[in-house]
Design a protein that fits this description.
106 residues
Amino acid sequence: MQLLHYEFKPRGVYVTVVPAGLTDTPVRAKLEFDPRTMPLKPMSVEQCVSEGLNALPENRSRIVPGRMNRIMNALVPASVKRTMTAKMLGKTLANKPTPASARAQA
């Protein structure tokens, strides 16, 4: 996605990639992630959007919103972040009943 920044730059089009990280969106609740048990507190959607929009006039190719997200991004290798995310999602999804089993229990 960052490539778009460089492809459109000569045309005067600004593209900024905003990897949101832990953001308090409806998906978090749908996956039943409890903010109290998460390793980091999710940032608000407003903070994420605000930081992303503030980066646009600076014509930055990428902005990582949230101080803790920036720290984690700088210190933790991408492969470790992917593994952590996969494990967290895996645990959540493993504990969630499938639609078929939910109907069978009803």
